[in-house]
Write a structure and sequence with these properties.
mainly beta, OB fold (Dihydrolipoamide Acetyltransferase, E2P), 4 domains, 5-stranded antiparallel β-sheet, 37% strand
């Protein structure tokens, strides 16, 4: 039985409380599932095929609905947290029943009213459940190219980098070497594709190409100089980690921006310091 999927099943019999549906190949209707009376289309008859979503009710019995779920099993998308309890969070998937997100399947802090990126799966009891560990459910990227601007949602932050679901469906990674600021799970970002791998995974950067980024980097440093009263204690000899922490730039991007400001005669470099020109 395809729990968590939309199927086309036929009506095999009626009862007071609804219609029973079975797969077309189930001639005897032995695996029939109830479609509650309020959802049976007016004028429907035995043998009619209906498009329904299959799940399990509170008693663990299979049941059908004509309502369209927000996600089906294996799909990834953003779902609203209805409630958080001792066993996990309950997510709205657009049906009569919410779906449990067990605590072991969460990523980061969660709270009611928040929308989280999640995938649906069938647990060991045959019930629908949700997970925020979406990596196994992401698809290879198609029709993406180097330098494309893409949008995505952060779903993990690890030492090796920031994992992003590009368009909430494809695997993307901002490598640690390209991570210049703080990221959090659920954050929506815009990034540039720096590489399309053979396996369909995307390498990303939050920054534009160097020649396009140069002006904005220089403007940011110049503004920081003005805010600091015209002097900053950094220069060519400042270590890369300090540059990354203070300016959210790589050392090479920092040096390009400083060179740009020097060329425009806006600054001076004096013994490990950046100083605004006054002439």
């Amino acid at each position: 039985m395809e729990i968590g999927k939309i199927v086309k099943w036929k009506i095999v019999r009626f009862r007071e409380f609804g219609a029973y549906l079975a797969a077309p190949e189930d001639v005897e209707g032995q695996e029939a599932v109830l479609l509650p009376k309020k959802q049976v289309p007016q004028g429907a008859g035995i043998g009619d095929e209906l498009s329904v979503f299959l799940y399990k009710d509170s008693s663990g019995r299979p049941i059908a609905t004509t309502r369209q779920p927000l996600l089906t099993v294996g799909e990834v998308g953003k779902l609203l947290i209805r409630d958080v309890t001792k066993i996990g969070a309950f997510l709205d998937i657009g049906l009569e029943r919410d779906v449990l997100l067990p605590f072991r399947e969460r990523e980061g802090e969660i709270k009611p009213g928040q929308k989280v990126l999640a995938a649906l799966y069938v647990d060991h009891s045959g019930r629908l459940a949700a997970t925020m560990h979406v990596y196994p459910y992401l698809k290879p990227a198609e029709n993406y190219h180097e330098d494309d601007e893409v949008r995505g949602t952060v779903y993990e932050v690890r030492d090796m980098g920031v994992f992003v679901a590009v368009d909430d469906r494809c695997f993307g990674l901002i490598p640690r070497s390209e991570v210049y600021g703080d990221y959090s799970v659920g954050q929506e970002i815009t990034a540039r594709v720096t590489r399309v791998r053979e396996d369909g995974k995307l390498d990303l950067s939050p920054r534009e190409k160097a020649f396009r980024q140069l002006g904005s980097d220089a403007d940011m440093i110049f503004a920081r100089l003005q805010e600091a009263g015209g002097e900053l204690p950094y220069g060519d000899d400042t270590d890369p980690e300090t540059i990354r922490r203070v300016f959210h730039l790589s050392k090479s991007a920092f040096k390009r921006a400083i060179g740009h400001l020097l060329k425009e005669r806006k600054i001076l470099l004096k013994e490990g310091r950046i100083v605004l020109r006054k002439d």
